[in-house]
Amino acid sequence: MTPGELSRIEDTLRRAYGDVLESLRRDGSSPELVTGFQPGRPGRPGRGFGRLGRVGSSRRLAPVAAAAAVAVIGLVAGLIVPGALRPAADPAMQLGYVVTTGAVVPVDLATGVAQPPITFPAQGGAQAAAITPSGQAIYVATYQRYLIPVSTVTGKAGRPIRIGWYATQIVVSPDGSTAYLLEPSRGVAVVNLATNTAAGFIKMPSAWSLALTPNGKTLYVLNTVPCCTGSTVTPVDTATLKLLPPVHTSADLANRYIAVAPDGRTAYVVGVEAHGYKVVNSKIMWPKGSFTTTELTPISTATNTARTPVQLGRGGPGPISFSPDGRVAYIGGAPVTAVNLDTGTVSWTARSPASGYAPLVSPDGRTVYAVGVSTASRPQVYRIRAATGTLQGPVIPKVPGSSVFALPWNNGDTPVDLSPDGTTLYAQISNNPAQSSRLEAVDTATGQVDWVINLRDGGYLLLGPS
Amino acid sequence: MTEAIPAVAHESAEQVVTELYQLYRLGLIGTALVLTGDRPTAEDVVQEAFAGLYRAMPRLADPDKALGYVRASVINGCRLVHRARTRSLRLHSQFRSDQPVAWSAESAVLAREESRLALQAVARLRGRAREVLAMRYLLDMSDSEIAAALGVSKGTVSSTASRALATLARTLKEQS
Fold it and tell me: How many CB atoms sit inside 10 A of residue B96's CB?
């Protein structure tokens, strides 16, 4: 083998292994995972393992949650250097909130100056977080089955609310009155945010992802079931918490992602359909030549019926974003795909690296930002022209050897945020995703880094209302 | 502005294991996934390896060897899985022996066709070769570290990797 051939095969191998790691990071939602190992299963050595024991339950760990068991006092104290602290926030500031283990840190998004952290008992670390529409409260679900209310007004954390299991997704109703917490493979916990008390539990052993209509009246629960018995989406009447008849989709391998269009008329499901598999002794086998295709299934929210799916090809699935006018859906899969929702056809597939995160769309609808993986374990943010799908190259990070900290958070939400005016990208950057990272604010026009905050164990930004 | 964050000091075995888990869990599950072919098994193998490390920590004279211990445990765990499957294969011989038994949807939804083909080709290599490649290119271990983990000489690691890469290159060339 010549040195050139050796180099090529090594690169191929690194990319392939990088894809394996990336698939682990971005998406724990294979059907086997639901029926597979469960934490604390009798007879497993992981039982009683203290803070580390839940290896099997860490599939949807957020970056912060991956660091869940670390002692947090040092982290919180060390998150921001004292010189960067400011005593109080100007009400006119556009604030973001970095959620990390045992703390929420308000950050002035214009300058990157951090406010004093709002601390609370780590309870094993954060699993998911959400901010209310008013921006007055943040809810952090922790590994040890608590939901912690954090007031951004008073700067204090409230009494933890006990929940049944660890939650990996929090959806807050548009009026800010109710939170729906996804407890994977168990169901949905409902929390009254006015009283900060549990208000009910919707038992759904196949629950995997949630989406709420803009009017807050219907919650859609994505179910994932063992391959290949057919996947469903269950609508829930939020007024009564009554389950409506499930909607069947043709994605028999797995439904992966769900989102409701901005007009609330249609829910869209990205699912994977299997071809060529065999069932032998109740086991699914994948002989040579078997393959999968990805599809986007529209579901009418008025009638709760599935319409003909849009075929997205053999690429991997990804979460869904919408153009500001709601007429185009962008699927952050492999590759990033745009679907014209008026005609139900694929407009383009970008020649971008594989993604797996929800694309970001600029407020003017002209630009799409997608987290893509060009080489092994080196995710970057790419700019794509929304009209044509033309790739305009990576935007961040600029520093060679570093990458976007691309671990899953809230069911495929991207680890990158875009400011409401579209002028700044906020991205978590890391030289080694398993270690420390930094939050960077990058000017979308010039690519200049405006400010940087170092994070020891990662953390994610929630944007406050503008 | 840029601020540095002080590291958290290690004080107990639990903290050491926890920190190792945070730092290396993903790579080790990836390695186990490549070697066993399905993610639940890979997660079980890694869980058992860390559980074993936790139990062994009081007896481990040098805490710096904890990482080597857990890496070796993962490799051994994967071998045990493979052995169990080989026995099972004898009972279900209608499947090709070179087809990973549980190489399932995980690989089917991998992002790149090129990666899928490469991993399928890797899966057809012999066990030792797969281990060496995963440790070298997925865990970024040096040949010396791999040799220590597998209990073989550095030369054996080097020659095994060289042969495996040549086989891979040939296989992929034939496929294309």
Answer: 11
